[in-house]
TrEMBL record:
This is ATPase AAA-type core domain-containing protein. Keywords: ATP-binding, Nucleotide-binding. The keyword Transferase does not apply. Pfam families: KTI12. The lineage of its organism: unclassified sequences, metagenomes, ecological metagenomes. Coiled coil: none annotated. It comes from marine sediment metagenome.
């Protein structure tokens, strides 16, 4: 089994990349931690509790899917050290292949994407810079940093590493 982890700031293209990879790889599934956190927020949990629930459900899904899927694509910002360690321990315990990708884009592009999102609270330049610092605090030696300026090139670059 392979686990492909896509992490990065909101608006970097993690979700669309995950969907394209799912279409390419037979017997694959996506775990979108953000979607799980948003579902918890809709259940009136606080932001911190929703994050915790999202991480817990993600790990449960990962464990369940690892028994039936050949490729699992997990997409998340991943700036929470506890979640990172749980994910890393799962990878070590199951001895599965893991591929870490940090997807990046220029700040002005992220702000443009954010301005078009349909949500009440939008990330500001300061939010993005703070999140970037949090992401960079988790140093992953085997992580591939991919600049997503062109989706086609990004997919090709990822596939060149995976295949």
């Amino acid at each position: 089994m392979k686990i492909i982890i896509l992490r990065g700031l909101p608006g970097t293209g993690k979700t669309i990349i995950a969907k394209i990879l799912k279409d390419i790889f037979f017997n694959s599934e996506i775990i979108s931690v953000d979607k799980l956190k948003i579902q918890a927020l809709k259940s009136k949990y606080t932001f911190l509790k929703a994050n915790k629930i999202g991480f817990e459900i993600s790990m449960q899904e990962l464990s369940k899917l690892s028994k039936t899927k050949e490729v699992i694509i997990l997409e998340e910002i991943i700036c929470n050290k506890k979640f990172y360690h749980e994910l890393n321990n799962f990878i070590k315990d199951t001895e599965c292949e893991s591929y870490w990708f940090r997807i990046t884009r220029k700040l002005n592009h992220l702000l443009a994407v954010e301005s078009k999102r349909k949500r009440k609270i939008k990330n500001t330049k300061k939010d993005f810079l703070n999140l970037k610092k949090e992401i960079e605090m988790i140093e992953i030696k085997s992580e591939h940093k991919i600049k997503n300026d062109d989706l086609e090139k990004t997919i090709k670059e990822i596939l060149d590493i995976l295949i």
